[in-house]
Design brief:
The structure holds two protein chains of two kinds. Chain A is of the alpha/beta class. Chain A is built from eight helices and eight strands, in the order βαβαβαβαβαβααβαβ. Chain A has a single domain, classed as 3-Layer(aba) Sandwich (Rossmann fold). In chain A, 30% of the residues lie in helices and 20% in strands. The longest helix of chain A is centred in the middle third of the chain and has 15 residues. By secondary structure, chain B is of the alpha/beta class. Chain B has two domains: 210 residues, Thiamin diphosphate (ThDP)-binding fold, Pyr/PP domains (Rossmann fold); 114 residues, Rossmann fold (3-Layer(aba) Sandwich). The chains are: A alpha/beta, B alpha/beta.
């Protein structure tokens, strides 16, 4: 897994690209190999879909969740939990940081930019099937906006191209050239392709770094 | 139709407005509709359109009034408390017979309420909201694909009838993401009707148009009301729209719109597996309410269940449509809480038991 030797993994990207789902997945994967895993929710953009919706699930899996005291409370304030600083200062902890969407969300991470040193993987999450990031050029533009706002540079790309529940293996395969174009243009490696559980059988022999995710939903009966 | 994209309900509405030829959007942020404005802030400049964040909801609706009077396709959007603020403007738009599109992504109320989904603005939407005798057309999409297609339709309906059309949705549909087919390219709005009544661009070539809702002579004001209601009669006759699920042999008819209707479908399957013939009648137009479909369903059904995220609002239209000829019960959650399939199924089973007793 890419996170070997890394103790902070940051997920940033376009609004609705899948950062929160991937963050939860990565935290669960890391927990299999590390005793102390923290998932840190630094989303100051979206009050509706938050990691805190799955707090019980995460905590039962032995993952510490750091989230604003206001997250999910409907009186959202764009503030950080004070404990957030601990993920940067405690070398014994392996952390995943979920950053809010677009440049507005990344602005918040700038607060900790100087602490994101060599031991951090900073991943750009992309989805070819989202309307404003459907073109490689648009995605690169969004990438630069995020980097400038957050005062950091990405170290890799996660290709999370999907059409929600309707995603087929074909959809994933046809997103590979898109991810490749972005990778070339930004000079960043595609570190993984993330898909929902069920698609791995058709894709495992075609894609090298496949992350197979359980999808967490807020409203289960729709 | 193009390849599908993964899009939020709020974004689908924004994209549909552009496809419908809307190039004038006046917004103001409020959860859970803010993505709609944020999306258009990014998209409108790229298609040569105007995105303007107004200083308030009241200002935004009055900008719509001006743009509509000038004859362009225009839209504003908000969520429940913001729609209350826009209600005065709605009345003025109606008084001037101006076509406009208004989006309401409902949240819990009354007052400041909460930010979680709700359907408690049914009365406000279908009974006007503002002062005076008037109606607006109200469309209730049931998913992201329909948020796209009915928003497009909303612009056509608005122009056709010179009315405000509201797309009434909620925090669930606004926030959820679904694979959705959109249309390729930018539409140049060829389907736009001529608007000989619009103001602007006279250049000495024709008489001036005046857009105004002030009539100080009661006889004149009465005449405008009467002719407007002739139009509404036509709209009621021709624009009723609904969808159904397992309705043909249904003895218990579940009525639900928007997000509630999706949950109700699961409950109907569950009730059928327990031997109760349940079906769904889903209003797509809330005004005009699909009275004919309900009257027809009442001939075969033994009882109705109104599933709402409100305290019993649509239930009144059901009872009126079927002239109280069958019992109608309410199954609801409010304040941002969402009914689950189990409680709807129980309501169906109870309605069946009562009807059999």
């Amino acid at each position: 897994m890419l996170t070997d030797g890394v103790n902070i993994t940051v997920l940033a990207g376009h609004y609705g690209s899948g950062k929160t789902q991937i963050a939860a997945f990565l935290a669960a994967e890391l927990r299999k190999r590390h005793e102390r895993v923290t998932l840190c929710d630094l989303d100051i953009v979206n009050p509706y879909f938050r990691t805190v919706d799955h707090r019980a699930l995460l905590e039962s899996a032995g993952i510490r969740l750091i989230s604003s005291a206001y997250a999910g409370s409907n009186v959202e304030t764009p503030g950080f939990p004070p404990e957030a600083a601990s993920v940067f200062d405690d070398p014994g902890v392996v952390s995943v940081i979920d950053v809010g969407g677009d440049d507005r969300g990344a602005l918040a991470l700038g607060r900790y930019a100087e602490k994101l040193t060599g031991n951090a993987a900073i991943l750009l999450v992309i989805n070819k099937y989202r309307p404003l990031s459907a073109g490689a050029r648009d995605t690169c533009e969004i990438c630069r906006e995020i980097e400038n706002a957050g005062r950091f540079r990405f170290t890799g790309i996660v290709n999370n191209s999907n059409l929600g529940a309707e995603t087929t293996a074909e959809n994933v395969l046809s997103s590979l050239p898109y991810a490749e174009a972005i990778s070339q243009s930004l000079s960043l490696p595609v570190v993984a392709v993330s898909v929902m559980k069920g698609l791995e059988r058709e894709l495992a022999d075609k894609i090298e770094h496949l992350w197979c995710m359980e999808i967490y939903r807020k409203w289960v009966s729709l | 139709m193009s390849e599908k994209i993964l899009i939020k309900g709020n974004e689908a509405i924004a994209e549909a407005a552009i496809a419908a030829g809307c190039r004038h959007f006046f917004g103001y942020p409020i959860t859970p509709q803010s993505e709609l404005a944020a999306y258009l802030a990014r998209r409108m400049p790229k298609v040569g359109g105007v995105y303007l964040q107004a200083e308030s909801e009241v200002a935004a609706i009055n900008m719509v009034y001006g743009a509509a009077a000038a004859g362009v396709r225009c839209m504003t959007s908000s969520s429940s408390p913001g729609i209350s603020l826009k209600s005065e403007g709605l009345s003025y738009l109606a008084g001037c017979d101006l076509p406009a599109v208004l989006i309401n992504v409902q949240r819990g109320g009354p007052g400041l309420g909460g930010i979680q989904p709700s359907q408690a603005d049914y009365f406000q939407a279908t009974r006007g909201g503002g002062h005076g005798d008037y109606h607006i057309i109200v469309l209730a999409p049931g998913g992201v694909q329909e948020m796209y297609s009915y928003t497009r339709d909303a612009f056509d309906l608005a122009d056709k009838h010179r009315m405000t059309v509201m797309v009434l949705t909620d925090g669930i549909l606004g926030q959820m993401m679904e694979a959705t087919a959109t249309e390729n390219g930018e539409q140049t709005a060829d389907n736009r009707q001529e608007k000989p009544w619009a103001v602007g661009g006279v250049r000495g070539e024709r008489a001036r148009n005046i857009v105004n809702s002030l009539y100080l002579k009661p006889s004149e004001l009465e005449a405008t009301n009467l002719s407007r209601y002739e139009k509404y009669k036509q709209v009621e006759e021709t624009e009723q729209k609904y969808d159904s699920y397992l309705l043909d042999d249904a003895e218990i008819v579940v009525a639900a719109y928007g997000a509630s209707s999706r949950i109700a479908k699961n409950a109907i399957d569950e009730a059928r597996s327990k031997g109760v013939k349940a079906g769904l009648l889903r209003p797509i137009t809330l005004w005009p309410f699909p009275k004919k479909a309900f009257a027809a369903a009442a001939k075969k059904a033994r009882a109705f269940v109104s599933v709402e995220m409100s305290m019993g609002q649509m239930i009144e239209d059901i009872e009126l449509s079927i002239r109280c000829s069958r019992p109608v019960t309410l199954c609801n959650r409010v304040g941002g809480m969402v009914p689950d399939p189990a409680m709807i199924c129980e309501a169906i089973l109870n309605a069946n038991k009562e009807a059999t007793a």
